[in-house]
UniProtKB/TrEMBL annotation:
InterPro entries: Haem_Oase, Haem_Oase-like, Haem_Oase-like_multi-hlx, Haem_oxygenase_CS
Ranges where the record places region Disordered: 1-24
Stated name of the protein: heme oxygenase (biliverdin-producing)
Keyword Membrane: yes
Keywords: Endoplasmic reticulum, Heme, Iron, Membrane, Metal-binding, Oxidoreductase, Transmembrane, Transmembrane helix
A GO CC term attached to the entry: endoplasmic reticulum
Organism of this sequence: Gasterosteus aculeatus aculeatus
GO MF terms held by the record: heme binding; heme oxygenase (decyclizing) activity; metal ion binding
GO BP terms in the entry: heme catabolic process; heme oxidation; response to oxidative stress
Subcellular location(s) of the protein: Endoplasmic reticulum
Length: 344
């Protein structure tokens, strides 16, 4: 387990979130290899990530932001991003899979604003298993030179939030009621496998999941809260990122760190292949969840003290507001309930 409470020499006598030093890639890995395992932190999140990051670049689509590279590099704008940037390469190789994922029956239900409580609960069950595997492997490999630069447990970890939501919907014995399809088990097995054999591949899974969650979670959380009649944020902890004050700027930092990871050509190709695999695994989960919903008795999936409602946005609002439809489609497309669709 990595020490996420170390004091930063840049901010004497001050504890902060788990931001590492801006020395990602192999250089950071070499420090860990020499035994300097202390993580360096800064108070960037509380201060809006960093005074050195762009403060006015707020574009409509989440992906296109300027990024600050490591401090010895030149700041890149979106227009200056190159084909060698790992984030750009992942975007390109997963384009077809991204479209396929958006057009699964489950995703279309979200885009229409019509998701049942049983669907939502089953998604949470799968999210629990996936994040348990992902975050345990990230923790175990947090000193790996490819993982360390993108390791942000204080800001991004989802497992505890999902557990809280499951307890709300299923009760204190929720662990006995968790049901997941075979596709979810295959997904978790793959995460465990690469954590042991190819830790650099975790970069692909962390990117596709966490940035997707961060991109659309807040909007979808508000929609779910209103539509399902939930009190306050109960049952919606998954959508909240209390450690991230500016999602857009955090994503800039995350992409910068990820693009700084030094990989051999073979490793880079492996990460790109793994990004495609991540989408395929998620598509299989979507399809299996839908099959479970169609085949299982309704009373088995609807066991809850919470009234069963449709996660449905009033049709009048959708029909009367083209802008609302466009925004809803965008947020759903990039991050529907955090199930692995990352922000472009």
């Amino acid at each position: 387990m990595c020490d996420s409470t170390a004091l930063s020499p840049m901010v004497p006598n001050e504890k902060s979130s788990c931001f590492h030093s801006a020395t990602g890639g192999r250089r950071l890995g070499e420090k860990y290899k020499r035994g300097e395992s202390r993580l360096l932190h800064c108070t960037a999140i509380q201060r809006g990530v960093s005074e050195s990051l762009p403060s006015q670049r707020e574009l409509t689509e989440p992906y296109w932001f300027t990024m600050e590279t490591e401090k010895e590099n030149t700041t890149q704008t979106a227009e200056e991003m190159t084909d060698r940037d790992l984030s750009e390469q992942i975007k390109r190789v997963t384009k077809e899979s991204h479209i396929r994922a958006e057009n699964t029956e489950l995703m279309l239900s979200f885009q229409k604003g019509q998701v049942t409580l049983p669907q939502f609960k089953l998604l949470l069950c799968s999210l629990y298993e996936v994040y348990k595997a992902l975050e345990e492997e990230m923790d175990r490999n947090c000193h790996h030179p490819s993982v360390a630069p993108i390791y942000f447990p204080a800001e991004l970890a989802r497992l505890e939030a999902v557990e809280k939501d499951l307890a709300y919907f299923y009760g204190p014995d929720w662990r006995e009621k968790v049901v997941v399809p075979a596709a979810t088990k295959r997904y978790c097995h793959r995460l465990r496998q690469i954590g042991k054999e190819n830790p650099e591949f975790l970069v692909a899974h962390a990117y596709t999941r966490y940035l997707g969650d961060l991109s659309g979670g807040q909007v979808l959380g508000r929609i779910a809260q209103k539509s399902m009649g939930l009190r306050s944020s109960e049952g919606l902890s998954f959508f909240a990122f209390p450690g991230v004050s500016s999602p857009n700027r955090f994503k800039q930092l995350y992409r910068s760190r990820m693009n700084s990871v030094e990989l051999t050509e073979e490793e880079r190709n492996g990460v790109l292949e793994e990004a495609v695999r991540a989408f395929e695994l998620n598509i299989q989960v979507f399809e299996d969840l839908q099959k479970m919903l169609l085949s299982a008795p309704k009373n088995k999936l609807q066991t809850s003290s919470t009234p069963v409602k449709m996660l449905q946005i009033p049709g009048a609002i959708i029909q009367s507001s083209p802008l609302f439809r466009a925004l809803l489609g965008l947020f759903v497309a990039v991050a529907t309930v955090g199930i692995g669709i990352y922000a472009f």
